[in-house]
Amino acid sequence: MSPDPLAVNLIHRVNVGDSLTRSAERHPDALALSDGSRRLTYSRFDEQVNRVAHSLIDYRVAVGDAVALASGNSIEFLTTYYACAKIGAVCVPINLDWRADEVAYVLGDCAARIFVVESELAETMSEAAATAGTVEVVAVVGPRPRHDFGAASITDFDSILAHSNASQPERLVGDRAALTYLYTSGTTSAPKGVVGNHTAVYLESMTMIIEGQFRPEDRFAAILPMFHTAQLNCHCTPAIMVGAALHIQRGFDPQNLLSLIESEHITQLFGLPMMYRAMLEHHSIDTRNLSSVRRALYAMAPMPQNMLERCIDVFDCEFYLLFGQTEMSPTATIFRPENQLTHSGSVGTPVVNVQVAIMDEDGNRLQQGRSGEIVYRGPHVMTEYLGRPDATDEAFRDGWFHSGDIGHFDDDGILWFTDRNKDVIKSGGENISSVEVEKALYSAEPGAAEVVVVGLPHDRWSEAVTAFVVPRPDTILDQESIRTKMRDHIDAYKIPKAVIIVDLLPKTATGKVRKNIVRDSNRSFYQQL
Questions:
Q1: Quick one: DSSP state of residue 497?
Q2: What is the distance between the alpha carbons of residues 106 and 435, in angstroms, rounded to a whole number?
Q3: Which of 240, 242, 239, 243 lies closest to 268, judged by CA?
Q4: Domain 5-201 class in CATH
Q5: How far apart are CA 136 and CA 45, in angstroms?
Q6: What superfamily in CATH does domain 252-420 come from?
Q7: How far, in Å, CA of 20 to CA of 525, rounded?
Q8: Same fold, 5-201 and 252-420
Q9: Which of 268, 264, 292, 265 is nearest to 220 (CA)?
Q10: What is residue 188's predicted lDDT score, i.e. its pLDDT?
């Protein structure tokens, strides 16, 4: 008699949902999730996930079906995510910065049948669902809205949670089955759906546990948006895998986060450099007890060396920079504490489970010191771009995943990120790294809170290096003074032709500056002079 395929699958499969099941069995009474007003133990969280999973099965959600999720950081977000994982459905988190037409594109592209929506987002999401025409059922978190979601029926998320069956759902789900479709922003074309699979995210979680030394007794502050791979896969899934506590924050506020660190004895932080800066500049920072924090992660943007040193001094813990991209689930390298004083500005060394190389345009690996495209191998790599075989083929070449990033390894085996290929500025016959210029400006001008450098059309230079700078509070910056100071930090031809002082910069929901918008909205700058 041949073995039952489902039984065999359940015995040895790799499934992100199973990591919650195991944590619930090991630590049933330990705190899993807290949002300030609700606290769920691991046993209760797992039971809640199982009820939602069975409800999705009742709605005829099959393995591979897409379940869209429009929610801020919440218990319901993680409940839906893990319910999808357990039954082989594909969770499609919606970026809350998207317009209705962008959401509609994603819903249609992934053919989402089920749509979990927070009631406060109903206006945008109802328009999107009606336009897409694929959504059959909308489960609303919170008060039922008056909006029409097209032909979709509307139910309450609470009714899904009330399903009578809290047992572990049993379905045959392959190790490389799709877990998420995470859509990357499209600057010149429609967004691409990055297909993340169970093996990739499972091993990303294990990588973070190893590299970050995560422990069951840890207490994590979940600050960044969960719809982004960084918060979801670098912090949430590994924290739940190890059985730690997640304290969910709806957004970032320095006062609230500092208070949370004290009241809940937070041990693990993950934020943007601007968030750490805001805490350092908060009026109460010198009176706060931050001794519980033992590790702090940051990503999305570089941290100036003087600011990093100040963070290490104030928080008295180790700081790690994570570097990667959505297609890598997302971590590829980590800038570790032992390199921070000797290799300031680098992005560190490869993590467990990831191989990194530098390659030229002909597919040849380059030696240390030579610049080229950063390429990756390893189980973290995505499966494909959803429905985009040409884009997938372009990324999967020469036996490596091509990142679109430019960089090099130095003689110590440390990786240096130069720029995104599309952000390299071609000026006067030279290729200039926008990132290098940004770092130089930060070093030259302590009064700069935020900096972005782009190339703008110029009759003489083709593209002119141009800096946009947000001053620190109560600081007045002078454009020419900044350019003069930069002479000691960077080659003369790389100094911005213009420094433009602004009040704010356009950003994504995760805090990354949207360089494409800065470029596009200022294309005629030099023609107007």
A1: S
A2: 31
A3: 239
A4: alpha beta
A5: 27
A6: ANL, N-terminal domain (3.40.50.12780)
A7: 53
A8: yes
A9: 268
A10: 47
Helix (H, G, I), strand (E, B) or coil at 117: strand
Three-state DSSP class for residue 149: coil
What's the alpha-carbon Rg for the chain, to the nearest Å? 24
DSSP 176-232: TSEEEEEEEPPSSSPPEEEEEEHHHHHHHHHHHHHHHT--TT-EEEE-S-TTSHIII
DSSP 8-state code for residue 454: E
Between the two ends of the chain, the Cα-to-Cα distance in Å is 82
Residues in the chain: 529
Rounded-to-integer distance, Cα 142 and Cα 156, Å: 8
d(CA 520, CA 506): 12
Alpha-carbon span 187 to 400, nearest angstrom: 24
CA dihedral 271, 276, 277, 278 (to 10 degrees): 90
Task: Give the whole-angstrom CA distance, residue 396 versus residue 375.
Answer: 10
- Residue 300: its pLDDT value, please? 82
Distance CA 97, CA 183 (A): 12
Contacts of 377 (CB under 8 A, 6+ apart): 354, 355, 357, 399, 400, 401
Cβ(124)–Cβ(99) below 8 Å: yes
Write down the pLDDT at residue 493: 94
In the chain, domain spans = 5-201, 252-420, 424-527
Pairwise CA distance, residues 487 & 77, whole Å = 49
- What's the CATH code, domain 424-527? 3.30.300.30
SS (H, E, C) 81-101: HHHHHHHCCEEEECCCCCCHH
Provide the 8-state DSSP code for 339: G
Print burial letters for 318-354: b (CB count within 10 Å at least 16), e (below 16).
bbbbbbbbbbbbbbbbbbbeebbeebbbbbbbbbebb
Q: List the chain residues with pLDDT less than 50.
A: 187-188
Tell me how far apart the alpha carbons of residues 297 and 317 are, in angstroms, rounded to a whole number: 10
pTM score, two decimals?
A: 0.90
Q: Cβ(315)–Cβ(290) under 8 Å?
A: yes
468, 415, 408: which is closest to 441 by C-alpha?
468
